[in-house]
Design brief:
alpha+beta; 470 residues
Length: 470
Amino acid sequence: MAIITKSFLDLTGLTTYDTAIKEWANSVNQLGFKTALTDANGNYLYLYVKSNAILGTDTPDATIALGSGELADKLDALASVCGATWDSTEGEYVISLDASFDAGTDTIVEALNELKGQINILNGSDSTSGSVAKTVKDAIDALDVTEFPIAEVDLSGVVTIHGIKENNGAVAVGTNITNDIVLEEIATTGAAADVSIVDAGGYITATDVEGALQELASAASGGVASKTIYVTDNSAGQSDYAKVYKIWQGAHAPDAVTDPATLIGTINIPKDKVLQDASIVDITYDDGSLYDGLTDVTELIVGSGTATEADAGKYLKMEMQNVTDPLYVNLQVFVDVYTVESGASEIQLALSNHEFSASVVSIDGAKIVYKTETSAGAGDGETVKAALTRLDGSDSTTGSVAKKIKDAIEALDTSSDVDIATYEAGTSGAADVITLTGSLQEVNGVISAGSGDTITLSTITTAQINSLFS
Protein backbone atom coordinates (compact mmCIF):
# COMPACT_ATOMS: atom_id res chain seq x y z
CA MET A 1 0.00 0.00 0.00
CA ALA A 2 1.68 3.20 -1.19
CA ILE A 3 1.71 6.45 0.80
CA ILE A 4 1.16 9.60 -1.27
CA THR A 5 2.44 12.71 0.50
CA LYS A 6 0.98 16.13 -0.34
CA SER A 7 1.88 19.47 1.31
CA PHE A 8 -0.76 22.00 2.21
CA LEU A 9 -0.71 25.51 3.62
CA ASP A 10 -2.75 26.27 6.74
CA LEU A 11 -3.61 29.63 8.32
CA THR A 12 -0.57 29.64 10.60
CA GLY A 13 1.77 29.01 7.69
CA LEU A 14 -0.03 31.59 5.58
CA THR A 15 0.42 34.16 8.38
CA THR A 16 4.13 33.41 8.46
CA TYR A 17 4.23 33.70 4.69
CA ASP A 18 2.31 37.00 4.80
CA THR A 19 4.74 38.47 7.32
CA ALA A 20 7.75 37.28 5.36
CA ILE A 21 6.45 38.51 2.00
CA LYS A 22 5.77 41.95 3.48
CA GLU A 23 9.24 42.12 4.99
CA TRP A 24 10.75 40.95 1.74
CA ALA A 25 8.70 43.36 -0.34
CA ASN A 26 9.88 46.25 1.80
CA SER A 27 13.52 45.18 1.91
CA VAL A 28 16.44 45.59 -0.42
CA ASN A 29 15.72 42.12 -1.73
CA GLN A 30 12.81 43.64 -3.57
CA LEU A 31 13.96 46.37 -5.92
CA GLY A 32 10.40 47.33 -6.56
CA PHE A 33 10.33 51.01 -5.58
CA LYS A 34 7.31 52.26 -3.68
CA THR A 35 7.84 56.04 -4.02
CA ALA A 36 9.11 58.12 -6.97
CA LEU A 37 9.83 61.87 -6.47
CA THR A 38 11.47 64.55 -8.59
CA ASP A 39 13.53 67.43 -7.33
CA ALA A 40 12.18 70.95 -7.44
CA ASN A 41 13.74 71.55 -10.87
CA GLY A 42 12.54 68.27 -12.33
CA ASN A 43 16.09 67.29 -13.32
CA TYR A 44 16.30 64.18 -11.15
CA LEU A 45 14.01 61.30 -10.40
CA TYR A 46 14.40 59.92 -6.89
CA LEU A 47 13.24 56.31 -6.28
CA TYR A 48 12.51 55.04 -2.79
CA VAL A 49 11.93 51.48 -1.58
CA LYS A 50 10.06 53.00 1.31
CA SER A 51 6.45 53.80 0.62
CA ASN A 52 5.34 57.42 1.18
CA ALA A 53 8.92 58.64 1.33
CA ILE A 54 9.42 62.40 1.92
CA LEU A 55 11.69 64.42 -0.34
CA GLY A 56 14.56 65.90 1.59
CA THR A 57 13.83 63.76 4.64
CA ASP A 58 14.30 60.22 3.32
CA THR A 59 17.35 59.16 1.41
CA PRO A 60 16.49 57.91 -2.09
CA ASP A 61 17.58 54.35 -2.96
CA ALA A 62 18.22 55.31 -6.58
CA THR A 63 18.64 58.57 -8.46
CA ILE A 64 17.98 58.92 -12.16
CA ALA A 65 19.09 61.97 -14.08
CA LEU A 66 16.21 62.86 -16.32
CA GLY A 67 16.87 63.45 -19.94
CA SER A 68 19.84 61.04 -20.11
CA GLY A 69 20.42 57.36 -21.03
CA GLU A 70 20.76 56.50 -17.34
CA LEU A 71 16.96 56.29 -16.96
CA ALA A 72 16.67 53.51 -19.58
CA ASP A 73 19.48 51.58 -17.90
CA LYS A 74 17.77 51.85 -14.55
CA LEU A 75 14.45 50.65 -15.98
CA ASP A 76 16.13 47.67 -17.64
CA ALA A 77 17.84 46.79 -14.36
CA LEU A 78 14.53 47.09 -12.48
CA ALA A 79 12.79 44.87 -15.05
CA SER A 80 15.55 42.26 -14.75
CA VAL A 81 15.16 42.10 -10.99
CA CYS A 82 11.39 41.63 -11.36
CA GLY A 83 11.85 38.88 -13.96
CA ALA A 84 10.30 41.00 -16.72
CA THR A 85 11.38 41.00 -20.37
CA TRP A 86 10.91 43.61 -23.05
CA ASP A 87 8.29 42.81 -25.71
CA SER A 88 9.44 44.81 -28.71
CA THR A 89 6.28 43.98 -30.62
CA GLU A 90 3.96 45.31 -27.94
CA GLY A 91 6.44 47.91 -26.73
CA GLU A 92 6.15 46.90 -23.07
CA TYR A 93 7.68 44.75 -20.34
CA VAL A 94 6.00 41.40 -19.71
CA ILE A 95 6.30 38.82 -16.91
CA SER A 96 6.17 35.05 -17.65
CA LEU A 97 4.31 33.17 -14.89
CA ASP A 98 3.82 29.42 -14.35
CA ALA A 99 1.19 27.87 -16.64
CA SER A 100 -0.96 26.97 -13.61
CA PHE A 101 -1.92 30.64 -13.14
CA ASP A 102 -5.01 32.03 -14.85
CA ALA A 103 -4.53 33.33 -18.37
CA GLY A 104 -5.24 36.90 -17.30
CA THR A 105 -2.68 36.90 -14.49
CA ASP A 106 0.43 38.68 -15.79
CA THR A 107 1.68 40.77 -12.85
CA ILE A 108 3.30 39.85 -9.57
CA VAL A 109 0.47 41.44 -7.56
CA GLU A 110 -2.18 39.53 -9.52
CA ALA A 111 -0.24 36.27 -9.04
CA LEU A 112 -0.04 36.86 -5.27
CA ASN A 113 -3.76 37.62 -5.12
CA GLU A 114 -4.54 34.47 -7.10
CA LEU A 115 -2.38 32.37 -4.77
CA LYS A 116 -4.11 33.82 -1.73
CA GLY A 117 -7.53 33.09 -3.25
CA GLN A 118 -6.58 29.47 -3.91
CA ILE A 119 -5.29 29.10 -0.34
CA ASN A 120 -8.55 30.52 0.99
CA ILE A 121 -10.46 27.94 -1.06
CA LEU A 122 -8.34 25.06 0.30
CA ASN A 123 -9.03 26.25 3.87
CA GLY A 124 -12.74 26.75 3.16
CA SER A 125 -15.65 24.96 4.93
CA ASP A 126 -17.11 21.61 3.87
CA SER A 127 -19.59 23.51 1.68
CA THR A 128 -16.87 25.39 -0.25
CA SER A 129 -16.17 23.84 -3.65
CA GLY A 130 -12.52 22.83 -3.95
CA SER A 131 -11.77 22.90 -0.20
CA VAL A 132 -10.06 20.01 1.55
CA ALA A 133 -12.97 19.78 4.02
CA LYS A 134 -15.53 19.47 1.20
CA THR A 135 -13.44 16.88 -0.66
CA VAL A 136 -13.32 14.71 2.50
CA LYS A 137 -17.05 15.25 3.18
CA ASP A 138 -18.02 14.36 -0.43
CA ALA A 139 -15.90 11.19 -0.24
CA ILE A 140 -17.66 10.12 2.99
CA ASP A 141 -21.14 11.00 1.62
CA ALA A 142 -20.42 8.89 -1.47
CA LEU A 143 -20.24 5.79 0.75
CA ASP A 144 -24.00 5.93 1.49
CA VAL A 145 -26.10 3.09 0.02
CA THR A 146 -29.85 2.56 -0.30
CA GLU A 147 -31.34 0.36 2.42
CA PHE A 148 -31.57 -3.30 1.33
CA PRO A 149 -32.96 -6.56 2.83
CA ILE A 150 -30.57 -9.29 3.98
CA ALA A 151 -33.23 -12.03 4.39
CA GLU A 152 -35.70 -13.54 1.89
CA VAL A 153 -38.40 -16.24 1.78
CA ASP A 154 -38.80 -18.35 -1.37
CA LEU A 155 -42.03 -19.88 -2.69
CA SER A 156 -41.49 -23.10 -0.73
CA GLY A 157 -41.23 -21.18 2.56
CA VAL A 158 -37.46 -21.54 3.04
CA VAL A 159 -35.96 -18.48 4.81
CA THR A 160 -32.43 -17.45 3.71
CA ILE A 161 -30.41 -14.88 5.66
CA HIS A 162 -27.51 -13.53 3.54
CA GLY A 163 -24.26 -11.93 4.60
CA ILE A 164 -23.17 -8.46 3.48
CA LYS A 165 -20.16 -7.21 1.54
CA GLU A 166 -18.49 -3.88 0.78
CA ASN A 167 -17.51 -2.81 -2.74
CA ASN A 168 -15.80 0.55 -3.33
CA GLY A 169 -17.09 1.75 0.02
CA ALA A 170 -20.72 0.66 -0.61
CA VAL A 171 -22.24 -2.09 1.56
CA ALA A 172 -24.49 -4.59 -0.27
CA VAL A 173 -25.94 -8.12 0.03
CA GLY A 174 -23.16 -10.70 0.02
CA THR A 175 -22.80 -13.27 -2.79
CA ASN A 176 -20.84 -15.94 -0.90
CA ILE A 177 -23.49 -18.61 -0.21
CA THR A 178 -21.29 -20.26 2.43
CA ASN A 179 -22.13 -17.31 4.68
CA ASP A 180 -25.91 -17.77 4.24
CA ILE A 181 -28.10 -18.97 7.12
CA VAL A 182 -30.93 -21.18 5.78
CA LEU A 183 -34.07 -21.91 7.84
CA GLU A 184 -36.22 -24.74 6.43
CA GLU A 185 -39.91 -24.27 5.52
CA ILE A 186 -41.11 -25.44 8.97
CA ALA A 187 -40.08 -21.96 10.18
CA THR A 188 -42.89 -20.44 8.07
CA THR A 189 -45.42 -23.24 7.39
CA GLY A 190 -45.62 -25.10 10.72
CA ALA A 191 -46.81 -28.17 8.71
CA ALA A 192 -46.19 -31.69 10.07
CA ALA A 193 -45.03 -32.73 6.58
CA ASP A 194 -42.09 -30.29 6.95
CA VAL A 195 -40.93 -31.81 10.28
CA SER A 196 -38.37 -34.59 9.94
CA ILE A 197 -38.07 -37.49 12.41
CA VAL A 198 -35.07 -39.49 13.57
CA ASP A 199 -36.68 -42.93 14.26
CA ALA A 200 -33.53 -44.33 15.88
CA GLY A 201 -35.22 -47.73 16.33
CA GLY A 202 -36.03 -48.07 12.63
CA TYR A 203 -39.75 -48.74 13.21
CA ILE A 204 -41.14 -46.24 10.69
CA THR A 205 -40.51 -45.98 6.94
CA ALA A 206 -41.54 -42.31 6.57
CA THR A 207 -38.99 -39.51 7.21
CA ASP A 208 -41.43 -36.80 8.32
CA VAL A 209 -44.12 -36.49 11.01
CA GLU A 210 -47.03 -36.49 8.52
CA GLY A 211 -45.90 -39.78 6.93
CA ALA A 212 -45.26 -41.35 10.35
CA LEU A 213 -48.79 -40.48 11.49
CA GLN A 214 -50.24 -42.10 8.39
CA GLU A 215 -48.21 -45.25 9.04
CA LEU A 216 -49.39 -45.37 12.65
CA ALA A 217 -53.01 -44.88 11.59
CA SER A 218 -52.68 -47.61 8.99
CA ALA A 219 -51.10 -49.99 11.50
CA ALA A 220 -53.83 -49.22 14.06
CA SER A 221 -56.55 -50.00 11.54
CA GLY A 222 -55.40 -53.63 11.42
CA GLY A 223 -56.36 -55.77 8.43
CA VAL A 224 -57.90 -59.05 7.40
CA ALA A 225 -55.06 -60.95 9.01
CA SER A 226 -55.75 -59.49 12.46
CA LYS A 227 -59.40 -60.71 12.29
CA THR A 228 -58.79 -64.16 10.82
CA ILE A 229 -59.83 -67.12 13.02
CA TYR A 230 -58.77 -70.63 12.12
CA VAL A 231 -58.48 -74.07 13.78
CA THR A 232 -55.59 -76.48 13.54
CA ASP A 233 -55.51 -80.17 14.39
CA ASN A 234 -52.80 -80.69 16.97
CA SER A 235 -53.67 -84.27 17.89
CA ALA A 236 -50.45 -85.74 16.61
CA GLY A 237 -47.87 -86.54 19.24
CA GLN A 238 -50.22 -86.57 22.26
CA SER A 239 -52.01 -89.43 24.03
CA ASP A 240 -54.34 -87.79 26.52
CA TYR A 241 -57.15 -86.93 24.12
CA ALA A 242 -58.65 -88.41 21.06
CA LYS A 243 -58.32 -85.11 19.24
CA VAL A 244 -56.82 -81.72 20.10
CA TYR A 245 -57.85 -78.64 18.15
CA LYS A 246 -56.25 -75.20 18.58
CA ILE A 247 -58.07 -72.00 17.69
CA TRP A 248 -55.89 -69.16 16.34
CA GLN A 249 -56.38 -65.51 15.53
CA GLY A 250 -54.10 -63.77 13.02
CA ALA A 251 -52.47 -64.40 9.65
CA HIS A 252 -52.93 -67.97 8.46
CA ALA A 253 -49.92 -69.91 7.21
CA PRO A 254 -49.53 -73.63 6.50
CA ASP A 255 -47.30 -74.10 9.54
CA ALA A 256 -49.13 -72.81 12.60
CA VAL A 257 -45.99 -73.05 14.70
CA THR A 258 -44.33 -70.27 12.72
CA ASP A 259 -47.51 -68.20 12.27
CA PRO A 260 -47.56 -64.64 13.57
CA ALA A 261 -50.95 -65.58 14.99
CA THR A 262 -52.13 -65.75 18.61
CA LEU A 263 -53.47 -68.92 20.22
CA ILE A 264 -56.84 -67.99 21.68
CA GLY A 265 -58.23 -71.41 22.60
CA THR A 266 -57.71 -75.19 22.66
CA ILE A 267 -60.40 -77.89 22.29
CA ASN A 268 -59.53 -81.24 23.79
CA ILE A 269 -61.72 -84.18 22.71
CA PRO A 270 -61.77 -86.96 25.32
CA LYS A 271 -61.01 -90.45 24.10
CA ASP A 272 -64.40 -91.84 25.18
CA LYS A 273 -66.04 -89.90 22.39
CA VAL A 274 -65.18 -90.14 18.77
CA LEU A 275 -65.42 -87.11 16.59
CA GLN A 276 -66.35 -88.14 13.13
CA ASP A 277 -66.29 -84.75 11.46
CA ALA A 278 -65.83 -81.08 12.28
CA SER A 279 -66.32 -77.98 10.21
CA ILE A 280 -66.93 -74.29 10.53
CA VAL A 281 -70.36 -73.26 9.34
CA ASP A 282 -72.18 -69.95 8.93
CA ILE A 283 -75.47 -69.86 10.84
CA THR A 284 -77.80 -67.16 9.55
CA TYR A 285 -80.99 -65.89 11.18
CA ASP A 286 -84.28 -65.33 9.40
CA ASP A 287 -87.63 -65.29 11.18
CA GLY A 288 -86.39 -67.79 13.70
CA SER A 289 -85.15 -70.37 11.14
CA LEU A 290 -81.46 -71.26 10.93
CA TYR A 291 -80.31 -72.27 7.47
CA ASP A 292 -78.11 -75.28 7.96
CA GLY A 293 -80.55 -78.00 6.96
CA LEU A 294 -81.50 -79.07 10.50
CA THR A 295 -84.80 -78.45 12.25
CA ASP A 296 -83.48 -78.70 15.77
CA VAL A 297 -80.37 -76.57 15.40
CA THR A 298 -82.04 -73.69 17.29
CA GLU A 299 -82.56 -75.74 20.38
CA LEU A 300 -79.10 -77.24 20.12
CA ILE A 301 -77.55 -73.74 19.99
CA VAL A 302 -79.66 -71.78 22.46
CA GLY A 303 -81.11 -74.58 24.56
CA SER A 304 -84.75 -74.26 25.46
CA GLY A 305 -84.85 -70.57 24.54
CA THR A 306 -85.63 -68.87 21.27
CA ALA A 307 -82.88 -67.98 18.80
CA THR A 308 -82.36 -64.32 17.91
CA GLU A 309 -80.41 -62.44 15.28
CA ALA A 310 -77.56 -62.13 17.76
CA ASP A 311 -77.13 -65.93 17.67
CA ALA A 312 -76.23 -65.88 13.98
CA GLY A 313 -72.56 -66.16 13.00
CA LYS A 314 -69.79 -68.70 12.60
CA TYR A 315 -70.01 -71.95 14.55
CA LEU A 316 -67.78 -74.96 14.91
CA LYS A 317 -69.97 -77.93 13.91
CA MET A 318 -68.80 -81.24 15.38
CA GLU A 319 -70.44 -84.57 14.42
CA MET A 320 -69.83 -87.23 17.04
CA GLN A 321 -69.96 -90.97 16.52
CA ASN A 322 -73.10 -92.49 18.00
CA VAL A 323 -74.56 -89.00 18.59
CA THR A 324 -77.56 -88.04 16.53
CA ASP A 325 -77.28 -84.26 16.76
CA PRO A 326 -74.04 -82.44 16.07
CA LEU A 327 -72.51 -80.05 18.57
CA TYR A 328 -72.24 -76.38 17.72
CA VAL A 329 -69.64 -74.12 19.27
CA ASN A 330 -70.17 -70.38 18.81
CA LEU A 331 -66.81 -69.11 17.61
CA GLN A 332 -67.77 -65.50 18.31
CA VAL A 333 -67.13 -66.03 22.01
CA PHE A 334 -63.47 -66.36 21.15
CA VAL A 335 -63.37 -62.92 19.55
CA ASP A 336 -63.32 -59.75 21.64
CA VAL A 337 -66.01 -57.20 20.85
CA TYR A 338 -64.54 -53.80 20.23
CA THR A 339 -66.15 -50.36 20.25
CA VAL A 340 -64.66 -46.97 19.51
CA GLU A 341 -64.93 -43.71 21.38
CA SER A 342 -66.63 -40.96 19.43
CA GLY A 343 -65.61 -37.32 19.43
CA ALA A 344 -61.86 -37.97 19.87
CA SER A 345 -59.81 -34.77 19.71
CA GLU A 346 -56.69 -36.17 18.05
CA ILE A 347 -57.06 -39.66 16.45
CA GLN A 348 -60.64 -40.72 15.64
CA LEU A 349 -61.17 -44.49 15.28
CA ALA A 350 -64.04 -46.05 13.32
CA LEU A 351 -65.26 -49.70 13.31
CA SER A 352 -67.15 -51.13 10.36
CA ASN A 353 -67.61 -54.78 9.40
CA HIS A 354 -65.05 -55.77 12.05
CA GLU A 355 -62.44 -53.46 10.53
CA PHE A 356 -60.86 -50.48 12.26
CA SER A 357 -59.96 -47.28 10.48
CA ALA A 358 -58.45 -44.11 11.88
CA SER A 359 -58.32 -40.48 10.85
CA VAL A 360 -56.24 -37.66 12.28
CA VAL A 361 -58.37 -34.90 13.80
CA SER A 362 -55.78 -32.58 15.33
CA ILE A 363 -52.56 -33.45 17.16
CA ASP A 364 -51.01 -31.07 19.67
CA GLY A 365 -47.49 -30.13 18.57
CA ALA A 366 -46.38 -30.79 22.17
CA LYS A 367 -46.86 -34.52 21.47
CA ILE A 368 -44.74 -34.54 18.30
CA VAL A 369 -40.99 -34.99 18.83
CA TYR A 370 -38.92 -32.46 16.89
CA LYS A 371 -35.56 -33.42 18.40
CA THR A 372 -34.95 -36.53 20.49
CA GLU A 373 -32.82 -36.55 23.62
CA THR A 374 -29.13 -37.27 23.06
CA SER A 375 -29.47 -39.86 25.81
CA ALA A 376 -32.22 -41.10 28.12
CA GLY A 377 -33.01 -38.48 30.76
CA ALA A 378 -30.71 -35.85 29.20
CA GLY A 379 -33.62 -33.41 28.96
CA ASP A 380 -32.33 -31.86 25.72
CA GLY A 381 -35.13 -33.16 23.50
CA GLU A 382 -37.66 -30.79 21.95
CA THR A 383 -41.23 -31.06 20.69
CA VAL A 384 -42.56 -29.42 17.54
CA LYS A 385 -44.61 -27.01 19.67
CA ALA A 386 -41.56 -26.03 21.71
CA ALA A 387 -39.48 -25.63 18.55
CA LEU A 388 -42.10 -23.38 16.93
CA THR A 389 -42.43 -21.34 20.13
CA ARG A 390 -38.65 -20.92 20.18
CA LEU A 391 -38.44 -19.99 16.50
CA ASP A 392 -41.28 -17.46 16.88
CA GLY A 393 -39.72 -16.01 20.06
CA SER A 394 -38.50 -12.44 20.56
CA ASP A 395 -34.99 -11.25 19.71
CA SER A 396 -33.93 -12.13 23.25
CA THR A 397 -35.06 -15.79 22.99
CA THR A 398 -32.20 -18.21 22.37
CA GLY A 399 -32.66 -20.06 19.08
CA SER A 400 -35.39 -17.75 17.73
CA VAL A 401 -35.28 -16.45 14.17
CA ALA A 402 -35.51 -12.88 15.48
CA LYS A 403 -32.49 -13.37 17.78
CA LYS A 404 -30.42 -14.99 15.02
CA ILE A 405 -31.13 -12.01 12.77
CA LYS A 406 -30.40 -9.57 15.60
CA ASP A 407 -27.15 -11.36 16.53
CA ALA A 408 -26.06 -11.45 12.89
CA ILE A 409 -26.64 -7.69 12.56
CA GLU A 410 -24.92 -6.89 15.87
CA ALA A 411 -21.94 -9.01 14.83
CA LEU A 412 -21.30 -6.50 12.04
CA ASP A 413 -20.24 -3.84 14.59
CA THR A 414 -16.56 -2.94 14.47
CA SER A 415 -14.61 -3.38 17.71
CA SER A 416 -13.52 0.28 17.51
CA ASP A 417 -13.89 3.32 15.27
CA VAL A 418 -12.15 3.09 11.90
CA ASP A 419 -10.00 6.17 11.35
CA ILE A 420 -10.43 7.86 7.98
CA ALA A 421 -8.27 10.83 8.92
CA THR A 422 -5.66 11.42 11.65
CA TYR A 423 -3.85 14.56 12.75
CA GLU A 424 -0.38 14.82 14.27
CA ALA A 425 0.90 18.21 15.43
CA GLY A 426 4.48 18.98 14.46
CA THR A 427 7.06 19.93 17.10
CA SER A 428 10.28 21.95 16.93
CA GLY A 429 9.33 23.47 13.59
CA ALA A 430 8.29 20.16 12.00
CA ALA A 431 5.21 20.06 9.78
CA ASP A 432 1.73 19.19 11.07
CA VAL A 433 0.55 16.01 9.33
CA ILE A 434 -3.01 15.00 8.34
CA THR A 435 -3.25 11.39 7.10
CA LEU A 436 -6.29 10.38 5.01
CA THR A 437 -7.09 6.65 4.77
CA GLY A 438 -7.00 5.70 1.11
CA SER A 439 -9.92 3.24 1.26
CA LEU A 440 -12.21 1.23 3.53
CA GLN A 441 -12.91 -2.50 3.28
CA GLU A 442 -15.48 -4.90 4.72
CA VAL A 443 -14.47 -8.41 5.84
CA ASN A 444 -17.18 -10.69 7.24
CA GLY A 445 -19.38 -7.64 7.84
CA VAL A 446 -16.70 -5.64 9.72
CA ILE A 447 -15.48 -2.38 8.16
CA SER A 448 -11.77 -1.55 8.45
CA ALA A 449 -9.01 0.32 6.61
CA GLY A 450 -8.50 -0.96 3.07
CA SER A 451 -5.47 -1.33 0.82
CA GLY A 452 -5.95 1.90 -1.14
CA ASP A 453 -3.17 4.50 -1.29
CA THR A 454 -2.94 6.62 1.86
CA ILE A 455 -2.82 10.41 1.35
CA THR A 456 -0.69 12.47 3.75
CA LEU A 457 -1.20 16.26 3.98
CA SER A 458 1.65 18.18 5.66
CA THR A 459 1.71 21.84 6.56
CA ILE A 460 4.34 24.03 4.88
CA THR A 461 6.82 24.79 7.65
CA THR A 462 8.25 28.17 8.53
CA ALA A 463 11.63 26.93 7.38
CA GLN A 464 10.17 26.04 3.99
CA ILE A 465 8.56 29.47 3.65
CA ASN A 466 11.74 31.25 4.71
CA SER A 467 13.70 29.24 2.17
CA LEU A 468 11.59 30.82 -0.54
CA PHE A 469 13.15 34.14 0.25
CA SER A 470 16.73 32.99 0.63
